[in-house]
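Consider today's protein:

***
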Amino acid sequence: MLQASDARKVMNFKMKNSKEIEPLSQYTESSDTAVVPENRLAGTVGALLFSLAGGIVYFLLYQVGYIAAISGLIGVICAFKGYEVFAKKLSKFGCIISVVMALLVIILAWYCCLAKDVYSAYQSWFADGEIDFTLTFAESLRNAYRFLSEPEISKSYVTDLIIGIFLCALGAVRPIINIVKGNKNKAAEDKNEPAFQAEKYNAPEEKSNAYMPQSMRAASSEKPQDKNGDM
């Protein structure tokens, strides 16, 4: 018959030298709660690259006479996606960077549209003989802002820019709300986690006995006999 002292020796040996008795939950839980690192630099680059799609759409829609300001909504959505893809996650910092990149690209596209109109106007005036010189597109880019000093010209251009910025901000509302809700849920989970861990690991001896064979649990529960044979 297996003596209690022998059973305890076998139990101690197996617990020290075998990993089979370790519960699989300690591995699955750690993988579920693993924190994904945020690469802010890569996310910034991703937000810039993806927001360029909105800028290109803005420029193209403006050339064909459509409302180009709607591209502000497209640009900010693409910027959020680009940051999330490159940074591996979307945070408050990512929201701010995505909005800033989308705004910069929309403003750049708007200015390029203004410069294109200046370039086209000078080409038309030169062809009609109204002026004896013309401007290249690079020169138009450098001097387009001068035409905004004219109220009649600046009114329509500034209105388009304001609408584009408004739609850009509108597209950022939903992702920001999702980030805020996610942070609140995470804070609630972190608050409840210590109590859960204390309850789970409060009785390590009972936890280890659950993985022992039935015969070893029965043997370990027996009281060892003294030298005189008394219980």
Remarks:
- The CA atoms of residues 76 and 94 lie 12 Å apart.
- Residues 19-33 have pLDDT under 50 and may be disordered.
- The first helix runs from residue 4 to 17.
